[in-house]
Each structure stands twice: as C-alpha cells, then as structure tokens.
Amino acid sequence: MAQFLGIGMTHYPGLHMLDEDMSIFLRLTLQGANFDSGMRDPARWPEPMRAEWGDDQGRKAGRAHRERCLAATRRLRAELDRFKPDVVVIFGDDQYENFVEDLVPPFCIYIVDEMESRPFEIPLESKLPRNNIWDEGRQTVFRHKGHVQAGRYVANRLAEEGWPLPYAYRLRYPRGLAHAFINTLLFLDVDRKGFAYPVLPFHVNCYGGELVRSRGGTVAPSEISTEPDPQAPTARTCFDLGRKLARAFAGSPWRVALIGSSSWSHAFLTGKNSWIYPDHASDRARLEELKAGRYERWRELSPAEIVDAGQQELLNWVTLVGAMAELGLRAEIVDYVETHVFNSNKCFALFAQ
User: Fold this and answer.
1) Which residues, 6+ apart, have CB-to-CB distance to 47 below 8 Å?
2) Rounded CA gap, 118 and 182, in Å?
3) Distance of alpha carbon 177 from alpha carbon 190, whole angstroms
4) Spans in the chain with pLDDT lower than 50
5) Quick check: 61 and 144 in contact, CB under 8 A?
6) N or C end of the chain: smaller count of CB under 10 Å?
C-alpha cells in the first residue's frame, strides 16, 4: 500500500542569483520599450515596494528574501529525507524548452532512466545573470535518476481510468530538464549534499500556446497574432487529474512524494499592476483557502481569474492539491513570503499523512 508526502514550493530562478541580481526581472520590465514610462518612477509605487527597492535596487532585501525562502526549502528537504521516498513526482511547467512548435501537450509524463541538466549554461545573448550563489559554472552537470517503472505504471493506470496522457522517453531541451524541474531539485539540495531519490517529472502546460507563439518571450507583442492560442488546461482538469493520479499511485507499493512547484502570482503576468508587482489579494485568498482545507475552491478557478491574477503557474499547485484532496491530507504552511520587487509571492507547504 502506497504512502504519500505532499510538498508545495517554488522554482523561482532568482533564488540562485547573487544579491545584486535578485531584482533583475523588475529591472528588465522597467526597461521595456512598451512599458508605461510613468511607472518607472518609484514615487508611484506602493510604499512596501519602495521600501524593498530601497536605495540599492533591492540588493539588501533580495538577500533577506532568498535566505527566508531557502530556509523553507531546507525544512522541506528535511521532511523529504525523513519520508525516504521511492519516487518523487514533480508537477512543473515548460517554457519553450522541451515543447515548441511541433507539439504542445496539456500534460506529459517523462519516462526516463536518467536526466542530465546544465542549468547554468545560459545563452550568451540572454540578459539574465550568469553567476549563482554556489559559484557553479556553465558546464556544471547535474544528474538525477528517473523512475521508469513508476512512469509506466501511472501512465497505464490513468489510461485505464480514461485519462490517457502523452509521455516521453527522452528530454529534447539541450540543457536537460526544464527550469521548473531542475530549479526545484537545486533548491531541495541547496546545501549540495546530493539528491539520490528517483524523480518522475510531470509536465503541466500552464501557459497554453502563449509561450510558443512568443517563442519564450523573444518575439515582440506587435508581431504576435491577435487570434488566441489554445488555452492551458483548466484548474478543474488539473485538479481532477491530481485526484486520478493519487488514486492510481494508491495501489502501488511505493512511498510517493508529490511536489507542486511554482510561485503564485507573477508580477510580469499581472497587467492590472502595470506588470511590476504581484496580485497580493488573490494570493492571500488562495493561502486562506489552502489553510482552511477549501481545496474545491481551487478546482473552480476560472481561466479568466487565473490570468487576471497572474497565477498561471498555480496550475502546478492545483494538480498537487487535487491529489491532496483525494488523499485527505491537510496543508501545513511552512512559510508564505510576499514581495513587490522579486516578481512573485512564494508559498512553502507540507501535506503529511
């Protein structure tokens, strides 16, 4: 009979950046050609945002933000080590990494023996910083074991339940795992003691076709067709899939850790806040629902609500929460970290039997 541990966390790339680079996403937004020039003036920002920005463009606040988030990931890792999982399932999204023009599936199970990733091999043309808190170079390779048997098992069980899902036997992205998965693993191994647990990456297409038609954000909005792309799977679909997945794994002999990885509202997805800070009100509402065990409310989130709040990547958590609802597990909030300057609010949670 399977046993379960649930984990909710972030894969925010800023957490592996140096103090002076932590505000890079806000700075890039402010430099944008189509950005409202009036909002470049900090005097027009909310007071908490001005305080975070300070007189050093967020350097001091960035260090505190990172240290608080990584302290939470250390707690999550400690619980994972206590649990000793046979397989770690990670719900994460792909941003024009493995899935490009030829195929954009709503979900995908990676059935692979081993994964090699080079997360710091940042393209030379990228505006993102190249240094990281571990001082690991461009060619540093991270190797993680897969769990082929679990991948095939759950794919077969879901198909039997009327949920046949796409699956892949290799990674197409030249740098290995998509950032949502490899960052999750990097943060869970923040102290670099190794991560030997077998991993089953489970892709959730949080953005629909948006990232494909913009080629991962490299195409100007003026060049993009106004005809909407196929949308992401709904919260209801993700929630129900999470339920089915938990039910499928329940009949297995494994100790299963299920991880939903994403920040919540993203500033650069929140148009009503001029793209510079997250939707705190919506994130706080999701937090209270999670604390109260009102999981079904997440199932009813509409695509319009999700987009309005910049919560597209929350679909990774919605899939996790659907599984937790099926298993009857309540959330323990390890930490909830709000920010105006560092792009997204981050929640860290445990769901234990």
Assistant:
1) none
2) 9
3) 17
4) 216, 219-222
5) no
6) N
| Closest of 237, 277, 266 to residue 11, by C-alpha | 266
Report the pLDDT value the prediction gives residue 332, as an integer from 0 to 100: 98
Q: CA 340 to CA 337: how far, in whole Å?
A: 10
Strand partners, 66: none
CA-closest candidate to residue 41, choices 274, 348, 324: 274
Evaluate whether 120 touches 132 at the Cβ level (below 8 Å).
Answer: yes
Q: Residue 226 class from Cβ within 10 Å (0-12 exposed, 13-18 middle, 19+ buried)? A: exposed
Neighbours of 227 (CB within 10 A): 6
Please write the tens of the pLDDT for every residue from 20-70: 999 999 999 999 877 887 899 999 999 999 999 999 999 999 999 999 999
- Which residue, among 10, 124, 16, 21, has the nearest Cα to 73 in the 3D structure? 10
- Sign of the CA dihedral running 148, 170, 120, 129: negative
What's the confidence (pLDDT) of residue 78? Answer: 98
Q: What is the pLDDT of residue 124?
A: 87
